[in-house]
Amino acid sequence: MKLHRITTTAIAGLFAATALVACGSDSDGSSTTVADGTDGVTIRIGTTDAAKEAWTVFEEKAADEGITLDIVPFSDYSTPNEALAQDQLDVNLFQHLKFLAEYNVGSGAELTPVGSSEIVPLALFWKDHDSIDGIEGESVAIPNDPSNQGRAINVLVQAGLVTLKTPGMVTPAPVDIDEANSKVSVIPVDAAQAPTAYQEGRPAIINNSFLDRAGIDPNLAVFEDDPESEEAEPYINVFVTKAEDKDDANIARLVELWHDPEVLAAVDRDSEGTSVAVDRPAAELQEILDRLEADQANS
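That's the ABC transporter periplasmic component sequence above. Prediction below.
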């Protein structure tokens, strides 16, 4: 089945249009909803990973269920939530819970997680080393963006290399590190520059997307955070809808289809074996989101 795909440019044009047509409306202007269990429905879903194999397999699985996926590809991380909030999407899948919390608090939106997909561990790399033995005294390059900096510091906490002044912080900053009781120091850099630091011989925490671009084997990591730990919960990737659509049965079916063995196998190939499937109930995801939003609002 050949499905219509909308570019981010087209989405921007839709936002600017004065005669904007609401998502799912009929030609006569009456509102329609996705009927539970009805073949032939179309669901608009946004992602930043549309080119990956998993999305092709996912699309085919949905088609087998009578659901047409109108996959909307995005090249940035801000537009998919705006598109969802403005009814240009029914659901998106591109972000972890912490990113969603930051968006909701910053925008006043109430976008809601309805299912989980996977978590991609964040890892420490050290050229020509296969463990963290001997790393004491080194300066570790970490991403400087808010979403990843705190997680990177907590990777070092889990590795026993950094001690925080206040244990258990979800998003610590370099100022929160107890330098006197830590084994390494940190140097925040632009996430895209972390691979360069690694190639120069400095230990570095590198996001998966930049590993791929730099041609670094993710299996060379000397340490990574534990996807089963409480510290990793903010980084569970989720399906997200508007609050009023959280009980949509067809979207719930999409969440189930993402966990089909063939889709999961494709996700594993896409991530070179680094992603870990996560299947958490929507209620648990919402509880985590609530905690993160409270923390974000008080920061």
